[in-house]
Amino acid sequence: MTTWLKVTATCLQDITIGTGATRAFMSPTMDHVPGSTVRGALARAWRFKHGDGHPRFRDVFDGTVRFGPLRAIGSDVANQSVWGCKYHSDHGEPEYLDAAFACPHCGREGTVDPCPGCGVSPRVAPSMCGRPGERLKGTIMFGAQSTKLVTSTAIDPERMTALESSLFAREVFPRGTVFDGHIVGDPTLTALLKDFERIALGGRKSVLGAVQLAVEEVPAPLPAQPTGPVVLRTVSPTILVDHTGAPSVDLPAAFPVGVVADIWGGRLAADGTSGWHAASRLPKPGDVALAPGAVIALSGIDGHDLRRLLDEGIGLRRPEGFGWLEIVEGAWKPPAKPAVQEVQIDAVVVHRFGPLTRPERKWLAGWLRVPREWDDSHYFAALWETATGKNLNPRKREMVRELLEATLPGDRTALASELERV
Ligand SMILES: [Zn+2]
Ligand SMILES: [Zn+2]
User: Fold this and answer.
1) ipTM at complex level
2) How far is the CA of 99 from the centre of ligand 1 (A)?
3) What is the CA radius of gyration of the chain?
4) Is 275 helix (H, G, I), strand (E, B) or coil?
5) How do the domains of the chain map onto residue ranges?
6) How many angstroms does the Cα of residue 127 sit away from the middle of ligand 2?
């Protein structure tokens, strides 16, 4: 038996999800949070809370618990079963036609190839606004502009002016953006993931931002209609191998139970499979993967097998969220613009230096003014070894850690000045 957790993450700061593709002074963000990033962030929070050597660490972060991708509210994976109108002009016509549910030519319900209604295959591009439609590609689509570009400069501490040619830019999801997704696994292990209210999200070598986390137990996301054929889709890249262990793109073979009645997929993922191995702290190379948004109609599968399929996903590296499956309840629609919601931003972020005393702020500023290599395993250990660092209580340490993790290397001097001013 497994437990499903729903994870809701609210950005308390602007956040860049690292792609590893950072160019000199410009860091783009990924358009979602991969499961591997969620896992890495929780593992970091865990280490900070429990220290190294907790007996369940490996079971939770390097075992069967699966960390799914998080998507921003108001975004969705574009299913590959959908024909889209490339230059949509006639608003009396549909902009999207989902061939997993109806014939894109005559609208007849069902997915028989060729269509018994009009005799044309649903795999032939329908005419949309007078041109051939185009299949969607499994990318993330947004209902509204969701990211923005933030630039900052390094400050010359002597003159308090911007240092020349030290401009940094990064693409961010702004503070207040809400992401959600799931974690699934053994109840005794997932129970240990419920009490993290705050984590730092980002990516390898990128700046981290604080996120407020809500983790709640939810029922497994089974279909509303429990009988009959079921339509599934992948929402993350899927890495398949054949029986000899060689890379494979044979998606139907990944479904050993039920009958694959229809399949829309086969695109290769452009990127997104390289990751970070939490336990060994080493980067992992990328694998050949199928793009998200693959749509599979399965018949002859019972509720028990379907639950197992959703629990376990398909392919390799499933604990990192690869091969994550979702039920598709109806024809795909483009994501709606997210409703503007009142987001409660934690007070600690508003009062950036919260409970730090004046001497503590001076100490931290002094530390920041000395250039140092940012090294996850040594940076904070050395900071806590200093005379003032030794005496910080856990709450202050957590605050300092979050503050530093959320500050770009080029912004550290500016932060030091700010600490000395207030
Ligand atoms: Zn059109
Ligand atoms: Zn038809």
Assistant:
1) 0.97
2) 16
3) 24
4) strand
5) 3-76+142-218, 81-135, 222-327, 351-421
6) 12
Cα–ligand 2 centroid distance for 102 (angstroms): 8
3-state secondary structure of 304: helix
Distance 73 CA to ligand 2 centre (A): 34
Instruction: Compute the distance between CA of residue 120 and CA of residue 112 in angstroms, rounded to an integer.
Output: 10
pLDDT tens string, the chain, 422 residues long: the values are: 899 999 999 998 888 887 655 555 667 888 999 999 999 999 988 988 888 888 999 999 999 999 999 999 999 999 999 999 999 988 789 999 999 999 999 999 988 899 999 999 999 999 999 999 999 999 999 998 888 887 765 555 555 555 555 566 778 898 889 999 999 999 999 999 998 888 888 754 456 788 899 999 999 999 887 677 899 999 999 999 988 988 889 999 999 889 999 999 988 886 655 554 444 444 555 678 899 999 999 999 999 999 999 999 999 999 999 999 999 999 999 998 776 554 444 433 334 566 788 889 899 999 888 877 776 667 888 899 999 999 998 888 888 887 887 777 777 777 888 787 76
Q: Which helix (DSSP H) or strand (DSSP E) does residue 36 occupy? A: helix 35-50
Residue type, 335: P
Q: State which H helix or E strand residue 276 sits in.
A: strand 275-277
- How remote is the CA of residue 104 from the centroid of ligand 2, in Å? 7
Of 228, 231, 253, the closest CA to residue 241 belongs to: 253
Q: How far is the CA of 340 from the centre of ligand 1 (A)?
A: 29
CB 354 within 8 A of CB 399: yes
Return the ligand number nearest the Cα of 83: 1
Do domains 3-76+142-218 and 222-327 share one topology? The answer is yes
- Topology adopted by domain 3-76+142-218: Alpha-Beta Plaits (3.30.70)
Q: How far is the CA of 197 from the centre of ligand 2 (A)?
A: 51
Q: Which two tokens stand for residue 213?
A: 């986390």
CA–CA distance, 64 with 361 (Å, rounded to integer): 43
- Distance (angstroms) between ligand 2 centre and the Cα of 109 equals 8
Name the fold adopted by 222-327: Alpha-Beta Plaits (3.30.70)
State the amino acid at position 352 in one-letter form.
Answer: R
Task: Supply 97's token pair.
Answer: 């036609």
d(CA 103, CA 107): 5
